[in-house]
What we know:
Domain Methyltransferase: 76-217
Keywords: Methyltransferase, Transferase
GO cellular component, one term: endoplasmic reticulum
Order of helices and strands: HHHHEHEHEEHEHHEHE
Strand order of the largest sheet: 3-2-1-4-5-7-6
Pfam families: Methyltransf_31 (PF13847)
Oligomer: single chain
GO molecular function, one term: sterol 24-C-methyltransferase activity
Amino acid sequence: MAAAVAVYAATALLTHRYRIQDYYSSLESRLGYSLFLGNTRHCGFYWGRQAWPLKINQALRAIEEKLYDRLVLPPGSTVLDARAGSGHVAIHIARKELFVNAIDITPHYLKDAKKNVRANQLESRIKVEYGDYHNLEHKFPENHFDGIYTMKTFVHANDPATVLRNFFQLLKPGGTLVLHEAEFRRNSPRLQEVLRLSHCQNTLEEGNYKRLIEEAGFTDFSLKDLSDNVLKIVGQQQRFPNIMAGVEAWLHWEDGRYISVRAIKPLPTL
C-alpha cells in the first residue's frame, strides 16, 4: 500500500483541483476497472469460499440483484441511478421492467452507458444523461421517482447531506432509497489515505448513514452488512494504484464494511 501511495502521490492529480472525473477518466483507472471489475464501478457478491476472478460476471449480477430486491418496486416504476457509470446496474434494473434515468458526470462513462444500453436494446427503458447528484433541483421535478439508488458512488459525494436532501425531494412519497456503499468503523491515517486516493474522503463513519438519512426526512431505515460476501482483490496494488486504492479498503474489514442501506420517504400525514 505504501508503494501505491507513493506512486500516486507523485502525480499532479493530487492537487486541490483533483476531481472524481479525473480519477475515473485516467487510463490506469479505466484499464483497472475493466480488468478487475468487468468495466463496472462496483464489487461482486460471492458465496462461501468463491474467489475472484472466478465467475466475476455472476458475482456482479448477484450484487445488482441484491440492490433490486431492496427496492421492492412493481413493474413500471421509475428509478434514478445516481452516477450510473457504464450502465450495467441500470441495465439489470431495466430488465426487471423498471424505467431508469441513469446519470453520471464522467464523459467516457456516459458514452459507454449509451453504447451498452443500445447493445441491450433497452433505449425505451433507460435514459442516459449528464447529471450531478449534488445539483438535481433543476433537472428533475420534485416527487418524480419511485426509487433512487447508488452502487458504490455515494462514497464520492463532496457533501453527503446535500445529496440525501436532493434524493428526498426527488422521491415520491412512499418512494424507496437504496444505497450500496461503504462505511468505516475505525478511523486511521492509512484509511484516510486510501479514501483520499480513491476520491472517497467523505466516506461516512459507522452510524452516520442512519443519522444523515433520518435528518434528510427519511423513515424506516434498515441496514444489511454484506461485507463477508463482497469481492476482495489482493496482490495488484502496485500495478494499479487508482483501482487498487478503491479496493484496498476491502482488504481491512476491521476498518470498514460494505453495506446495503434502505429507507423510505414517508407519506404525508393527514
